[in-house]
Amino acid sequence: MYFKIVYMQIIEFGTGDGSPVIHALETWGQYTGVIHGFEISPSAATAARHSAAAHGVSNQYKVLNSCFFKGLEQLRPSTLVANPPYVAAPDNDIMMPALHGGVDGANLTRDLMSLGLDKVMLLISSYSNPVETLQHARRQGYILRDFMVTAMPFGKYSSEPKVMRWITQMKDERKAFFSPRTYLLAGVLLVKPSTGLRQQKDLTDEVLAVMTALH
Ligand SMILES: C[S@@+](CC[C@H](N)C(=O)[O-])C[C@H]1O[C@@H](n2cnc3c(N)ncnc32)[C@H](O)[C@@H]1O
After folding, report:
1. How far is 45 from 50, CA to CA, in rounded Å?
2. Is the whole model's pTM more than 0.85, yes or no?
3. If you measure from the C-alpha of residue 58 to the centroid of ligand 1, how many angstroms do you get, rounded to a whole number?
4. Positions in the chain whose pLDDT score sits under 50
5. CATH (domain of 162)
6. Ligand 1 centroid vs 201 CA: distance in angstroms?
7. Is the CB of 20 under 6 A from ligand 1?
8. Would 3 be classed as within a structural domain?
């Protein structure tokens, strides 16, 4: 297990300001490999690089200003980490188009699940069609091995009237689950059975029971 942790190749979709990976590298000392982060926004990529340097982790965190799907062609990663854009809206004419995740909010998430990587760790929102999204992961052959769920307040972009009207409609179709005060965000670890991790219990039903609770 130790060797898997040390040598696995990690790739990140959508670095943003880089803070989640920088924090993980600072607190998770065993990992000695390199994480390649891809960020499509030039200003965010620059900020992430500066921040990695300021925290002394730029030798382990290489941030590239490129579309993730193009960059992937150059690397052969085993593991993907991502907090993909998940704002659901009929089109990307919203306050923050970079956070548009498609009509149901989960297009990019499903694309990432379809790449066939051994391990995928990503965030899934309860208002972005979580049931279909996790069924998609199952169809791709993933086992949901572990998860954490946290309550999120609606922020500036998720409470934009156009978005709120859309996800309220999705709620009626059981594609979105939230209360007036909060939605849920799950961090899930998906693994292919071929990774040989000892405990292979699939927790998809358990995470869905939690993610659909606010209906
Ligand atoms: C929800 S933010 C996550 C930022 C950061 N990882 C975090 O968790 O705080 C999603 C990020 O993905 C970036 N992004 C969107 N599409 C992308 C693509 N095709 N390739 C690389 N980055 C992309 C956006 O610019 C945005 O910074």
Report:
1. 9
2. yes
3. 19
4. 1-7
5. 3.40.50.150
6. 30
7. yes
8. no
